[in-house]
Amino acid sequence: MNQEILKKMKSPPEVTVNSIRRVVSQYKESFAAWFPEEAYKWRAVQCFQKHWNPERADFAEMLKESLAQAGNLLDTNYSFPCKMITFFAEKEPDTVRSMFQQLLAPGADIVEQIQSFKQSADTLLAKYQFKESMKQHYQKDRTICTYLFFAQPDRYFLYQYGKLKAFLAETGLQAACKMGDSQNVLTYQEVANRVLSCVQQDSELLNLFETKRAELGSLYYPDSAHHLLTDDIIYYGSQLYKSDYWPSPAEYDPEISAEQWLELFVDRTVCTAENLLILKTMQELGGEATCKQLSLQSGGTSAHYNSSMVQLARRVQEKTGCPLVQNENEDRKWWPILFVGRTALPGQPGTYSWKLRDELADALKLLSQKEVNDPMPFAKNTILYGPPGTGKTYQTVNYAVAIIEGKSLEDVQAENHEEVLKRYRQYRQDGRIEFTTFHQSFGYEDFIEGIRPVFAEDTDENTGDISYEIADGIFKKFCATAQPPVVDPKQNPYGFSESPTIWKVSLASTGDNPVRDYCMKHGCIRIGWDEYGESITDDMDYHVGGKTVLNAFLSRMQPGDIILSCYTAHSIDAIGVVTGEPEWHPEFDEYKRLRAVKWLIQGENIGIDEFRLEKSLTLSTVYRLNTTVESVIEVLGKHGFSGIAPVKGTKGPYVFIIDEINRGNISKIFGELITLIEPSKRLGQSEELQAKLPYSHKAFGIPDNVYLLGTMNTADRSIALLDTALRRRFSFVEMMPDSGVLDGVEVEGISVSGLLTTLNRRIEVLFDREHTLGHAFFTPLRQSPSMQTLGEIFRDKVIPLLQEYFYDDYEKICLVLGDRKRPEQQQFFQVEPPDLQSLFGVEPEFEVNPTYRINLNAFFDAEVYRNL
Question: Where's the ATPase dynein-related AAA domain (predicted)?
């Protein structure tokens, strides 16, 4: 090792050792959560070691295979060294072969080797950059050191300047480290060797690592010299240093006091109730959280919380005129008004963590709990009812957004509706809003759960029979989404996702077999259908079956899902959690499809009755089990898995919209669940109720954060006929025609608002108020106030509705339209006396009804409407 580097390492030996041991100690504490995320590096090294052979004739292909698992160790979002070096190898394989041979030559000076490699890359770039529109080759010190490490992992380490600088700062080690200095590589080697010395003396750490490494199997590099483990500890230490918050007080202060924050909290033009709930959630999480943690806690996407806080910061700045931090990134100019930030800690969900500013945190402490937790005056079950065209479905958008964001309805209605609609669509996409329409064919099976057929060709059971499975309905699925996670994301020793699916998997067959032994030893599950090859396409004929199983294994199964390994038709021998995506392993003789699994317990003999499964397991290789996460956790506890008792989190409001709720058969659709929608009977309330469902036999309750919002048309008198049980469990909000919506809208001097008012007054006298005309029919005139549009509204909307209302009593329809006040040519309906003599040959002695003809010319005549 270069002696000059040794001289530059000025830290006293005892300080060096203690600071390194501190990082190692923290690494061990975080190992269980940290290591699985970094294990890809061991796989990348093993891949290189397996394929590297510079003497191969097809050098370029060999290089691609060797670097296939390198991932972000080489390429990043804006740097593509792997892509470039393989491109050069395709163009000039012998040149690149020589570059690598010189780089890896024994005994050469590492700094000189790196410089020579870069110079050769410069030459290749100059040769091809104009022809191929390339700007750079990306072969920098970090990249070339990665090649060195891949080839000789027991000699080198994974150098990176930023990692070195942060680790030195975290540990207090003093060494020369300057951006662009080629000697940094030697400094890193010496620092890594010092860390390696501590690693080799820590038997606890080595035992942890060896156990985990053995679980990974032969696809991962053994790392017997522990160089990659050492490098991982250095990376971990560098991340600890990055936990320092930005911006520092010296860099930026928004100059907003706690008292000013309190004033901003109650100003709804600045801080919405939803903003306040997010801030309060952060306070409950200890004053700091990533957007991912907020998403896990309250539902929705991480992007939603990021956007919500940036928009709040913008409004705060507009209101207060506070200074902004200097930053080229647009979003990073705004959120520092509210928070200081840092890279998420090892094991912390998400990538970047926000911490409440001290003054903001103090203001939240002063704020009463009621002001935060009681922002929404909405009933849990609401029906909007009224005549046709009064905007009931339109208003469900405003109601849903107001409920979710904790705003008043008036605040949302005052906003630009296109912006509200945009947020509504995003909430639907996030799963926080669901919309359905009731109709006469809609039933319990559609709404809650039912049984659907599964054909034999869709499974791996080639019996020719039809089987049946229980399928969740739209409302049951929605309630499952709205429910808080069974396991608090902050206290999750299992590795389950927020809403994991539970899968039964058969490993080759029942009982002991080589495939089962391999899977238990190497942490995976394997299935077959090798006949189809690695790629499964939509147009395959599945001539040996397995369509449903392959779809489940390859597409529906996700990391964080739960695996129950089937030992017999009535027992489970292992429980695990999926940790990887589907893989294809041609080296196996059979069962070549694989997914990585972390086994929580194995070698057991657990009866399926412990999972509350009431029938034996079938032969199908992979299928979803109708049991619960709570049951799985209970079984894990009984069979020796040591973990934290599950603690539920909380979620924000979810809104389920039922359009035309009166069109469905309520008793048929809700069944025994009609009682469960009562606010006091919701999950978590004082009178909480759950019902045992008839098909799955599972207990079901409605989460307290689910809001039911229905719409109902009164023109058919259905509100009077509505199921009494439903009526007493819903709050009703009447929505009558509002001509004020049309104030200022004129067509050739005709007031549309006055027109609607006149028509509805006549209808109320001739019929009743429930059969008036809604203002929504006329809202297109706000965008297109023309006689053509007005005529089309009367022709296509108003006249057909009046014909329905009055059952073809055209005299009353004419009275509503004011026809009898106008000359015949301006009447919507013209009376045509029949020519009885020509029709019948005689004059009947009884009274004959007149014939009414629609006068199409009247619809587009402005004088008709002026005299209406």
Answer: 651-730
